[in-house]
Amino acid sequence: MLVVTGYSLGNTNGFIQLTTKINTWILSTFGELISVSVLVFLSLSIIAYFSPLGKNKIGGQEASPLLTKWRWFSITLCTTIATGILFWGTAEPLFHLHEPPPGLGLEPNSSAAIGFSISTMYLHWTFIPYGIYTMAGLAFAWSYYNLKQPFTLGAMIYPAIGERAIGPIGKVVDAISLFSLIAGMAASLGAGLIILAGGLETLAGIKYSYLTLGLMAVLIVGTFILSSISGLQKGIKTLSDINIKIFIGLAIFIFVFGPTLFILKWGFIGIWEFISHFFSRSLIGFTEEGKAWSQGWTVFYWSNWLAWTPITALFLGKIAKGYTVREFIRFNLIYPSLFGMVWMMIFSNTSIYYNTITEAAPLFNVLNSEGGVSKVIFSTLGNLPLSQLTSFVFLVAAFLSYVTAADSNTTAMSGISSKSINDDEPYLWMKVIWGVLIGTIAWVMISFSGDAETSGLDGIKMLSNLGGLPALFLMLVVAVGMVRLIWKSY
Questions:
Q1: What count of Cα atoms within 13 Å lies in the side-chain half-sphere of residue 76?
Q2: How confident is the model at residue 432, as a pLDDT?
Q3: DSSP classification of residue 57
Q4: Band of the pLDDT at 478, cuts 50, 70, 90?
Q5: Whether the Cβ atoms of residue 311 and residue 409 lie closer than 8 Å to each other
Q6: Whole-angstrom distance, CA of residue 285 vs CA of residue 132
Q7: Which end of the chain is more exposed for a tag (fewer CB within 10 A), N or C?
Q8: H or E segment to which residue 388 belongs
Q9: What is the DSSP string of 441-457?
């Protein structure tokens, strides 16, 4: 990771060009495989739910839960969404509204485009991505607790390849997955820093600068290191509980004071379109007309979710002790997906509404201005009562959201970087090393790799996406193991 960071600093343009070419090759070569694979992962999670495996308890029949169900749900949700739905929830639908796939014959900014836009948000942020996490997390939880395998990513593929997973193969898997997640977390932190800087400039007039970015990076990294050091029962549990209540409060406020009837109407139209076109939209990359759009949106998203999956799955599996497989699937797949659907119904439709009430498309113009994504949410909130207060609350939610995700992933990363781990927390100094490294890379990349608004962040986002390819093949092996576990349960 340090070598890659050094190269990006020494030859920024060369680094961006190289990673862009590699990324384009991955999307064009493996796009169809990625699209089919994620549907397989979701299907296996559903099959496992209805199979005899579903009634078995993770950790054995005598195992006691580590968390209450509410704590479990709040930690799972806050760990998996990071800052994604907060910012893309209002910005992404505007892209789909004005630039739908040419092959569908939709007129931009039309009623048909609205239905496509909201149904696409459901596609990108609900069942398929959570299906990826659920299958991987369940495979690890079963191997770690029930098959008594060590706390490594190799344990995830133990049901597929047996003892060979624990040893050199497992260590290579661990290393590649760590590299991918470091880049992914740094990219997410970099995006969060830029957006938080935009929010502070909007609300408080604090000028965007490298010093501001650095101070915010120190604050965020320091918070999630302290939270991680305090342990699961104190840090993540407390932060996630606060965070999910803020999420719910924001959603209710916008639903009540925003365009309620518009939200309900197009929310349910979008659900019907999502269901009726689920497979055709999921596999739109197989058509010549939809391939470019799919690679730029759907496949890109799947790759990015895959890059986060291996390490995130370790954490999700570790906190699931004492619950049945069916409960695991409900709390990691069904409930978060339904939450994501409600969130997108409210936020995406609100953004679409305030963009379409005039022909000037004001929010889309904001999206295409300097700062782009970081300003759309604040412009949307500006149309509602108490906009200053809700914007501040939104910034707090964004801060806590990343801290919670970073906390949980730092715990998992520290666990597989340690020689041994049990139900206790990993070494404190290991968490500090990972936290400082991630924060430093994020700040360096957005501050010194060319234009802070584009080049550095684009480079590390691209690097994050590259991690999706090795993660894809790892998940295919995990899927083979899941088939065997399900088969043996009959």
A1: 30
A2: 82
A3: B
A4: very high
A5: yes
A6: 19
A7: C
A8: helix 387-416
A9: HHHHHHHHSS-TTTHHH
Backbone angles phi, psi at 458, to 5 degrees: -60, -40
Compute how many other C-beta atoms are within 10 angstroms of the C-beta atom of residue 168. Answer: 9
The SS3 assignment for 50 reads helix
Report the mean per-residue pLDDT for the chain.
Answer: 85
Q: Please report, for residues 193, 293, 470, 474, 484, the alpha-carbon distance to residue 467 in angstroms, rounded to integers and kept in the order given.
A: 22, 21, 6, 11, 26
Q: How far is CA 393 from the centre of its chain?
A: 21
Q: What is the pLDDT confidence band of residue 453, given thresholds at 50, 70 and 90?
A: very low
> What pLDDT digit, counting tens, does each position of 350-388 carry?
999 999 988 788 999 988 876 566 778 888 999 999 998
The DSSP annotation for 151-206 comes to: SSGGGGGHHHHGGGGSSHHHHHHHHHHHHHHHHHHHHHHHHHHHHHHHHHHHHH-P
Query: Would residue 60 be called left, alpha or beta, if left means φ above 0 and alpha means ψ between -120 and 50 degrees?
Result: left
Would you state the structure tokens that stand for residue 154, as one six-digit string? 């190799």
Q: How confident is the model at residue 413 (pLDDT cuts 50, 70, 90)?
A: confident
User: How far are the Cα atoms of 39, 81, 166, 441, 446 from residue 470, in angstroms, in the given order?
Assistant: 18, 22, 18, 22, 25
pLDDT computed for residue 409 by the predictor: 73
Among 322, 386, 345, 236, CA closest to 60: 322
d(CA 189, CA 181): 12
Q: How far apart are CA 51 and CA 324, in angstroms?
A: 12
**Would you give the DSSP letter of residue 52?**
G
Dihedral angle of Cα 45, 85, 465, 174, to the nearest 10 degrees: -50
Asked if residue 434 lies in contact with residue 406, where contact means CB atoms within 8 angstroms, the answer is no
Type of residue found at 352: I
pLDDT band for position 202 (50/70/90)?
A: confident
Fold of 29-489: Amino acid/polyamine transporter I (1.20.1740)
CA distance between the termini of the chain = 44
For 468, residues 6+ apart whose C-beta sits below 8 A from its C-beta are: 26, 34, 180, 302, 303, 304, 305, 306, 307
